[in-house]
Design goal:
Helix content: 25-40%
GO molecular function: D-alanine-2-oxoglutarate aminotransferase activity
Shape: globular
Order of helices and strands: EEHEEHHEEHEHEEEEHEHEEEH
Bound molecules: N-(5'-phosphopyridoxyl)-D-alanine
CATH superfamily of the largest domain: D-amino Acid Aminotransferase, subunit A, domain 2
Catalytic activity: D-alanine + 2-oxoglutarate = D-glutamate + pyruvate
Number of strands: 15
Structural class: alpha+beta
Number of helices: 8
Keywords: Aminotransferase, Pyridoxal phosphate, Transferase
Pfam families: Aminotran_4
Protein name: D-alanine aminotransferase
Length: about 280
């Protein structure tokens, strides 16, 4: 089943207008929720971020947070007890193409679930990454459908034999193309502050909580590209990647070139947390 404008329907009932502003302008926002054994992981935090994104781009939906969350539960229940993810997007709606926002426009919502399993070997062995210039706008805190800089960076990484692109803005590390980035130096975890230059990941929030529980110092401070390359450990986090060690960047090994002890400690704690 699909969630279509607040109703659970079959695929045949979905009709997207050629005038949809998501299609013309990428005018919309989205969320990716993880499903572990049929349960939506950190649902409340995702809902909060979704409504915050909508608020910031001035999309007004006729569903309050609670009503929409109940619909997502129905969608997840239809998916069953397996592992997967729930994709949800809300565009501003359909209207003849003009840059200004029409006074009367109904948002268009689409949601669905897909089976998905964590990339275990990458999570265990780590991945190579590459750095690239952060050419995005200054409101990366909004989970917007405008993902062209992200997809281009990711493609660039793929063509260079890397698994993720790490964005560098004016010499400082911001985040990955679809993940948050952390370094570990002298036992201290550091990540870019949750300001307008990054998306505040839900997994990132979980890491901050876990680090506190584990007694690992955690700093919300940006690091330079030089500090990134000299770090003892680097890892990235997202709903789909969980905690993935980065073992080389731009073909240079990070630390010992294998997943480090702090990263592994966090992975173990995360595995307990998601149960
Ligand atoms: N992306 N930063 C960016 C730019 C992202 O696109 C994502 C997630 C994250 C991590 O956020 P979270 O921990 O809430 O997943 C950080 C999703 C998974 C995607 O676009 O598919």
């Amino acid at each position: 089943m699909f969630l279509w404008n607040g109703e659970l329907v079959s695929e045949e009932e979905i009709q997207v207008s050629y005038n949809d502003r998501g299609y013309y302008f990428g005018d919309g926002v989205y969320e990716v929720f993880r499903i572990y054994r049929g349960q939506l992981f950190e649902k409340q935090a995702h809902m909060k971020r979704l409504y915050q994104s909508m608020h910031l781009v001035r999309i007004h939906v006729p569903w309050d947070e609670e009503a929409l969350a109940a619909k997502l539960d129905e969608l997840a229940a239809d998916f069953g007890n397996g592992d997967g993810y729930l994709y949800l997007q809300i565009t501003r709606g359909a209207a003849p193409r003009t840059h200004t926002i029409p006074d009367q426009i109904d948002p268009v919502m689409l949601g669905y679930c897909e089976p998905y399993a964590s990339p275990i070997s990458q999570i265990k062995q780590g991945i190579p990454a590459m750095t690239t210039e952060d050419i995005r706008w200054h409101q990366c805190n909004i989970k917007s459908l405008n993902l062209l800089p992200n997809t281009l960076a990711r493609q660039q990484a793929k063509e260079a034999g890397a698994e993720e692109a790490i964005f560098i803005r004016e010499g400082m590390v911001t985040e990955g193309s679809a993940s948050n980035l952390f370094i570990v130096t002298g036992g201290v975890i550091r990540t870019h502050p949750a300001d307008r230059l990054i998306l505040e990941g839900i997994t990132r929030q979980v890491i901050e909580r876990i680090a506190e529980e584990e007694g690992i110092p955690f700093e919300n401070t940006a690091c330079s590209q030089d500090e990134l390359m000299a770090a003892d450990e680097v890892f990235l986090t997202s709903t789909t990647r969980e905690i993935t060690p980065v073992i080389s960047i731009d073909n240079q090994p990070i630390g010992s070139g294998t997943p480090g002890p702090v990263t592994r400690q966090l992975q173990e704690a995360f595995n307990r947390f998601k149960l």
